[in-house]
Design a protein that fits this description.
The protein is an all-alpha fold.
């Protein structure tokens, strides 16, 4: 009986930690690399400008 209780408590703690970890990961990573996209747009604009001269 004690083994079942310990297993249940450990399962609950594991589920809680997994939920908290998933929440932190979703907050930490943006859905798209905004800085990289801005840099690529700037590069494309500069290339277009230089080819029009």
């Amino acid at each position: 009986m004690a083994a079942l209780t310990v297993t249940g408590v450990l399962a609950a703690v594991t589920a809680l930690m997994a939920a908290l970890g998933k929440q932190q990961i979703s907050k930490a990573t943006p859905p798209k690399p905004e800085q990289t996209m801005d840099n690529v747009k700037a590069d494309v604009a500069e290339i277009k400008e230089k080819t029009q001269r």
